[in-house]
Amino acid sequence: MTLLASFIGTGTLHAILNGLAFFAFVLWLSLGYWTYKDAKRRVEDPLFIGLSVLIALVIPFVGPFIYMLFRPPEYLEDVRERELEIKAMEDRLAKRDLHCPVCRSAVDASYLVCPVCTTRLRQSCTNCKAPLEALWQVCPYCETPVQPAAVELDQTQALAPPRRERSA
Fold first, then answer.
1. 41 SS3 class
2. Which pTM value belongs to this model?
3. Are 153 and 123 in contact (CB under 8 A)?
4. How many CB atoms lie within 10 A of CB 150?
5. Taking each helix axis from N to C terminus, what angle separates 46-58 and 12-42, rounded to the nearest 10 degrees?
6. b/e 104-122 (16+ beta carbons within 10 angstroms → b)
């Protein structure tokens, strides 16, 4: 017993307790700082960021765990990156049909015939010669009614390019 009493009386115990208290204080501030940095990366609203840090500091050691229960699951940077990837995919899909169905070369939306393989892509209006889509019933440029026979492509013409004759 005298060994324990002498240990308590020497001040070594006070130094250890002061060291533990200092460690707990630094840990408490570190958790508050971590909450602030994490909330800044996940939340745009400064009010929610401030509230998160306040909870982390007012309720020591438990506040950050409360914040972790209610924080958004992903970072703002990841959300923005995913939105950009989705937009890029949508742009690629929108441009996907701008290729010739036979030779896959790039064609413009106004082309009537593929310049590489001469496959007929669209019919032209009988009045203004503007390119028409297959389902249109009237030309949107000159209001000329489209004859169904003019819109439907011959199956052999759509599948294979016309033959070119060799010059001798």
1. helix
2. 0.53
3. yes
4. 13
5. 160
6. eeebeeeeebbeebebbbb
